[in-house]
Amino acid sequence: MESIKSHSYEVHLEELAEAALNQHVEKINYSRIFLLVDENTRAHCLPVFENKYKYRIDTILEIRSGEENKNIDTCQKVWQSLSDNNGDRKSLLINLGGGVLTDLGGFVASTFKRGIDFINIPTTLLSMVDASIGGKTGIDLGPLKNQIGVINQPQMVLIFPEFLKTVEERQIRSGFAEMLKHGLIMDSNYWSVLKEEDDFSASHYIQKSIALKNEVVLQDPTEQGLRKILNFGHTLGHAIESYFLENPSKQTLLHGEAIAIGMILEGYLSHELKGLPRLSLQEIKDTFLRQFDKVEFDSDDIDAVLKLLKYDKKNSHGDINFVLLQSIGKAVTDVKVPEELFLKAFAYYKE
């Protein structure tokens, strides 16, 4: 399956990924090679990785899985382990895991000794189709998502769809939300195909989503303009995800589950402010509610979510900036939303 060329690296899939990894390590004389895993990828993905990788691993580093561990304390432990195990500026860090691990591992590598090489091997559908492209690395600040980080490119990204056999169905659906988003913001035909699909973890869909995101990132690597469209559903979605993460009385939502709600809410805002047709809005809502259970929000929940909007990383000069849809396949950025529409959007979601 054809590789995808990004700015300074390539995303390789399946057999090409295996070949690229071994050729790269053979070519570069790394002083130390570290592998970062969590307890899940160590148990389920490491044996598969070891069958594909021919060279040495000097040290395996393990962190705890889960968004709640994507923080500076975890970074501190990994930095310390790299130092204790003689890591230097000619070391390589291979990140084997989902989006939490590759975001954190990329940030650790980008800051240790002012930057060492890293390779990302995403093991969840979400990390394959989203975190694999764009070079965003980072961690959360308390419950606030992705507040600390840098944009820094890996040496390569390697996609092995067989890792998805180790992932529960709920995680697969979480990644599917981002794939549907790619259709909504860029490609109405892709949306039309995906929304009727059951086998959404097929390799050709993974490749298509990576290619669509890469097309955007190549034009705007540092998110000054066009790249903002990738945040559709994420302004309210991230606030919802953060609220459910910090509230012990709520069941934590996966990223895709929160973003699916965000896309329905921001779809409603698109209808009100940018002329998204009512039938398209209903199509969006019906599609996401077929895949994801409806979440209950009372008035206190909604108030708390809306208070978190002020921390969104797209904000500028005190304004909350939204990405909205003019139509399925066409997004617009930097839209200011009157506060009274937020409650109407939640009311529409709850209908």
Layout of secondary structure:
Layout: E1 4-5, E2 10-13, H1 15-27, E3 33-38, H2 39-44, H3 46-52, E4 59-63, H4 72-84, E5 92-97, H5 99-111, E6 117-122, H6 125-131, E7 136-141, E8 144-151, E9 156-159, H7 169-186, H8 188-194, H9 203-219, H10 234-246, H11 255-274, H12 278-291, H13 299-308, E10 322-327, E11 330-335, H14 340-350
Parallel strand pairs: 2-9, 3-4, 3-5, 5-6, 6-9
Antiparallel strand pairs: 1-2, 7-8, 10-11
User: Any guess at the CATH architecture of the largest domain?
Assistant: Up-down Bundle
Order of helices and strands: EEHEHHEHEHEHEEEHHHHHHHEEH
Rg measurement, Å? 20 Å
- Note the overall shape: globular
Give the distance, in angstroms, between the N- and C-terminal Cα atoms: 43 Å
CATH superfamily placement of the largest domain: Dehydroquinate synthase-like - alpha domain
Determine the structural class based on helices, strands and strand pairing: alpha/beta
Helix fraction, binned, reads 40-55%
Strand content: 15-25%
Q: What average pLDDT do the residues reach? A: 94
Biggest sheet architecture: 7 strands, mixed
| Number of discrete domains | 2
- Stretches with pLDDT under 50, minimum 5 residues: none
The count of DSSP E runs of length 2 or more, i.e. the number of strands, is 11
